[in-house]
Amino acid sequence: MKLIINYLFNKIGDNHYDKEVLLYGLEVLVYNIFTLFLLIIISLIFKNYYFGFFFIPVFSILRITIGGYHCKTIYGCTTLMAVIYSLTNILMQFNYYNLILKIISPFLIFVLLFIKPSVENRINFGQFDVYYKYLLQVLFILFYFVLFNSTAFSPVFSALLIVEIMYQLYLITHKL
Q1: Apex CA 70: angle with CA 68 and CA 166, to 5°?
Q2: How large a percentage of the chain has pLDDT more than 90?
Q3: CA distances from residue 99 to 89, 95, 108, 164 in whole angstroms, order as listed
Q4: C-alpha span between 164 and 170 (Å, rounded)
Q5: Quick one: which of 71, 92, 88, 89 has its CA closest to 80?
Q6: Residues 6 or more apart whose Cβ sits within 8 Å of residue 60
Q7: Do 70 and 77 meet the contact criterion of CB atoms below 8 Å apart?
Q8: What is the mean pLDDT of residues 77-83?
């Protein structure tokens, strides 16, 4: 990794701070790629490729936009993600999980209203600032009706459920 950082540093930056930022960014990229491959392997183990095809990108977009609980180390993060993804795959085997998910999904969409977005998570339309959370809410309302009888419903709304739980955990751990 040092060779890559030195190469990038020579092309981009000229101070010590830039080198540290490049190193951190490269480490995060490598660990995220590793985590993605781990989730793909878990999908293969559970023979639930379709679930992974929808869950992983929706979860990633929601986590970036909404945020939530973060582990103290990258290893803890990778382990937690593998456990969450595995448990969700196990829950998908039960019809009751899918039924409960369909029942609570309107509530999950409503909860998006109360998530405090960061300043970066908005788009400027002329005089108006629109937070991504409102766009997500509109999208998930559409997803709810369009995907309701589709097999894509459970992975999409499982991702929303897990991200909202992680957001609530973040609030709880930062109030203590």
Answers
A1: 35
A2: 47
A3: 15, 6, 14, 19
A4: 10
A5: 71
A6: none
A7: yes
A8: 92
Mean of pLDDT values over 30-38: 91
Beta bridge partners of 131: 122
Taking CA atoms, 124 is separated from 33, 132, 140, 143, in Å, by 31, 11, 21, 24
Tokens (6 digits) for 32? 């995220």
Q: By 3-state DSSP, what share of the chain in percent is helix, strand and coil, each rounded to 5?
A: 80, 5, 20
Strand ranges for the chain from DSSP E: 122-125, 128-131
Domain ranges of the chain: 2-175
The dihedral sign for the CA sequence 128, 131, 136, 141:
negative
Give residue-wise pLDDT tens across range 138-153.
999 999 999 999 999 9
78 close to 35: Cβ distance less than 8 angstroms: yes
Query: Side-chain half-sphere of 175: how many Cα atoms within 13 Å?
Result: 6
